[in-house]
What does this fold into?
Amino acid sequence: MHALLVIDVQTDFCPGGALAVADGDAIVPGINALMEGFDAVILTQDWHPAGHSSFASSHPGKGPFETYEAPYGTQVLWPDHCVQGTTGAAFHPGLRTDADLIIRKGFRPAIDSYSAFFENDHETPTGLEGYLRTRGIDKLTLVGLATDFCVNFSAVDAAKLGFDVEVRLDLCRAIDMEGSLAAALDGMRGAGCRLTGA
It folds into this structure.
């Protein structure tokens, strides 16, 4: 069984959004067209409460893209984005949302979640692995935003959990902060992910 995992194709990550990824909306038609070929389609959705600990606005004197030491390690501070119930947290209006499952992540106020599988402590599960196992899904193709953060973390975790993982780079877009894209590509390859469509 083969599932398409669509990572965080949300308004705030697309041009005009609070944490826009360049060209982030360009991948939507290709993702929609790809959906028909899979046994299951799963969407992830960043879903932060207001005042989330990963927001720079929650740390006086800190700005977006600086870091702080969270209990679970170094955390990048982001502009406020994907706040629960806001337009920015909604899926891109052009994205098909007739999915088998929607996984919301990042909803715990004190911990961020890049991966579709675990919070940033790398221990607290989202429940996605259990869903995939019970559905008999062992192959995953990942697309979405952003290549170097949530797609990367999700792909590496999936590979570590024993799934057969492909990342369609033509249907992803990156933030690329200080070499983060090159590091992510190396990390995904090192974990055994197949990178295609580049």
